[in-house]
């Protein structure tokens, strides 16, 4: 499908770090086109993304619905990516549904149950996922599959979990919590309060091996299982620097959603597991 | 079932390292009893296993079938474990089938297709598996599940594989080869000839972290996946010292087989995946 028209993508929240990284990934990826308009809240202006000047329309000052509908007319097949703020998640979801534009919601927070319920009921095409790092999602799902298939396989093993994030992140990694739940199903007896949170530069650069240039944006996780007699150990690490894994996963989700829209698939609401499952068909 | 009669276990090959480790695990495990007789080939004698004197009957000199049948009468519910030699695998399998004794075949090698075919056709209860390390099997299966569910999820990632074994092991780890196959299905383009074989003491103790006392018996594996732009890496390690993981997994297999025999299960031939799947029921 090399000759096909590129898929037009609007990135709402392009003024933020994640939105900008995603917009940049859209520009770089063959088969996708970043459109020069985006919705924002409280901040109008122009953002340059690798040479594409994107005009951000402030939805507090202008009619977001009108802007979106015009963009949909100008760019048939438009797909919206949302990397805005938790407080905008539900309002933006409603707007996309109202306009009937397919969207990928990468923004976390908001009332997730309400979001999923309303989008599903609407029949609007969407990918909604709290974690867009495709390979991290795959690993997390693999541990869950192992726990479902082989419950108790690691009974008697001791688990230790260490995670390092930028010091501005105060809470425990949600990914680590989800993976700990799987290890507990595998027979470990571990409480999430036992997860070691590394937030100081010395341990990050030294023990964890975080590159200095990524101290302000990284997600390093180490899980270690040790047998009761100490003769066997398993270690799993997933170490992410910067935002490219999330940006690339988001563009994958856009491409996936485009195919579903074109195929008029009867299922309309998806998550990253759905995107991953179709890997062989890409 | 704390008050139940212990399951009697004969360990053929008790004179060898793996047989002896398994016999010792049988002695230590509640609910199991090591019987004081075993079959051996070319070497008769008495082996002391944690205080249990096991008389080894040389099948080249005496009638193995008669010895086995007598043991089955003396110890109702007997289960045989086989850790002998590749050249004995098929003959021993035939003997166990002829006597109708359930068995766990931990010995590798021999004509596997013939073994599996004949045991399956006989309807004799057996667990036959080339790898008894339950947790290693679980990990290997988890990577296979991930590859089946999410083909291509790691496309563009570079894989490196390093494995360390005792210097007497000349060939590449079979487990590493199997796991590499899954990573290839996940989108890596890796040839098993690229697996780095570490067989020298300096790299084993230094880089790989093998404890000195296990230089003569260990299996350390490291798989590392790195994204094209270098910002993301995943690392998986499974490091085994000595034989206890295999010995314990074998006793788990014996317990599993005992339950299948007692339940008169319609399926009679199993592998370690079956043992693992029943984890929740143990």
From TrEMBL, chains A, B:
Coiled-coil residue spans: none
Homology family: Belongs to the DapB family.
Record InterPro entries: DapB_C, DapB_N, DHDPR_bac, Dihydrodipicolinate_Rdtase_pln, NAD(P)-bd_dom_sf
Keywords assigned by UniProt, alphabetized: Amino-acid biosynthesis, Diaminopimelate biosynthesis, Lysine biosynthesis, NAD, NADP, Oxidoreductase
Protein known as: 4-hydroxy-tetrahydrodipicolinate reductase
Domain Dihydrodipicolinate reductase N-terminal: 8-132
Organism: Ostreococcus tauri
GO molecular function terms attached to this record: 4-hydroxy-tetrahydrodipicolinate reductase; NADPH binding
Domain Dihydrodipicolinate reductase C-terminal residue range list: 136-276
Taxonomy of the source species: Eukaryota, Viridiplantae, Chlorophyta, Mamiellophyceae, Mamiellales
GO cellular component, one term: chloroplast stroma
Catalysed reaction, written as an equation: (S)-2,3,4,5-tetrahydrodipicolinate + NADP(+) + H2O = (2S,4S)-4-hydroxy-2,3,4,5-tetrahydrodipicolinate + NADPH + H(+); (S)-2,3,4,5-tetrahydrodipicolinate + NAD(+) + H2O = (2S,4S)-4-hydroxy-2,3,4,5-tetrahydrodipicolinate + NADH + H(+)
This enzyme's EC code(s): 1.17.1.8
Gene Ontology biological process terms from the UniProt entry: diaminopimelate biosynthetic process; lysine biosynthetic process via diaminopimelate
Pathway where it operates: Amino-acid biosynthesis; L-lysine biosynthesis via DAP pathway; (S)-tetrahydrodipicolinate from L-aspartate: step 4/4
């Amino acid at each position: 499908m090399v000759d096909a028209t590129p898929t037009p993508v609007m990135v709402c929240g392009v003024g933020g770090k994640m939105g900008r990284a995603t917009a940049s990934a859209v520009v770089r990826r063959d088969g996708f086109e970043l459109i020069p308009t985006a919705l924002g809240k409280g901040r109008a202006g122009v953002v340059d993304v690798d040479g594409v000047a994107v005009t951000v329309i402030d939805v507090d000052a202008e009619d977001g619905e009108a802007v979106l509908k015009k963009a949909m007319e100008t760019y048939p097949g438009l797909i919206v990516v949302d990397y805005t703020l938790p407080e905008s998640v539900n309002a933006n979801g409603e707007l996309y549904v109202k306009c009937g534009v397919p969207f990928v919601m990468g923004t976390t927070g908001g009332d997730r149950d309400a979001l999923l319920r309303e989008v599903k009921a609407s029949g609007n095409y969407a990918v909604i996922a709290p974690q867009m790092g495709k390979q991290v999602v795959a690993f997390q799902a693999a541990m869950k599959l192992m726990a479902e298939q082989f419950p108790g396989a690691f009974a008697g093993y001791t688990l230790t979990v260490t995670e390092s994030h930028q010091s501005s992140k105060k809470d425990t990694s949600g990914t680590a919590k989800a993976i700990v739940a799987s290890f507990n199903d595998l027979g470990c007896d571990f409480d999430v309060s036992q997860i070691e949170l590394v937030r100081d530069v010395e341990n990050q650069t030294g023990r964890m091996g975080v590159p200095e240039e990524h101290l302000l944006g990284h997600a390093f996780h180490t899980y270690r299982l040790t047998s009761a007699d100490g003769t066997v150990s398993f270690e799993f690490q997933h170490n992410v620097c910067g935002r490219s894994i999330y940006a690339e996963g988001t563009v994958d989700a856009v491409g996936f959603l485009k195919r579903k829209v074109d195929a008029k698939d009867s299922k309309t609401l998806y998550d990253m597991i759905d995107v991953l499952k179709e890997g062989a068909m890409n």
